[in-house]
């Protein structure tokens, strides 16, 4: 599925992405990415051509974690540079949500090695996907 492509103010190509911050039992749900960008990340992905942000969020959360969304609150939006994806685009415009979910998390994607729940203390020692780390810091989670 082609990812939606836009342009920065300077005319550079960008992709649009969604990220889902999900807290269960007081811990954060993360996957260990098997493909680039590697590192631990929240459930996240591209917004496809013709897809709404809300649909992309629901799709990624289901595809990567087997969860439904009960409610979602937009907590951060912005461009992240030096954020290269496997499709050769280096800038992503992120829409980050805090989500309440339904169901039990399960790993469904070949794009990740594992899925798990982690405390802030554990997360501080883990290698993160740089873009996710960037906005987790902006949100003062890490
Ligand atoms: Zn991309």
TrEMBL record:
Where is each Nudix hydrolase domain found? 13-142
Q: Tell whether Hydrolase is among the UniProt keywords.
A: yes
Q: Which GO terms describe its molecular function?
A: hydrolase activity
Indicate yes or no for the key word Chloroplast.
no
Q: Which UniProt keywords apply?
A: Hydrolase
Q: Which Pfam families match?
A: NUDIX
Q: Please, which domain of life does this record's source organism belong to?
A: Bacteria
Looking up Gene3D superfamilies in the UniProt record yields: Nucleoside Triphosphate Pyrophosphohydrolase
Q: Which PANTHER family match?
A: ADP-RIBOSE PYROPHOSPHATASE, DIHYDRONEOPTERIN TRIPHOSPHATE DIPHOSPHATASE
Q: Please identify the protein, giving its name as recorded.
A: Nudix hydrolase domain-containing protein
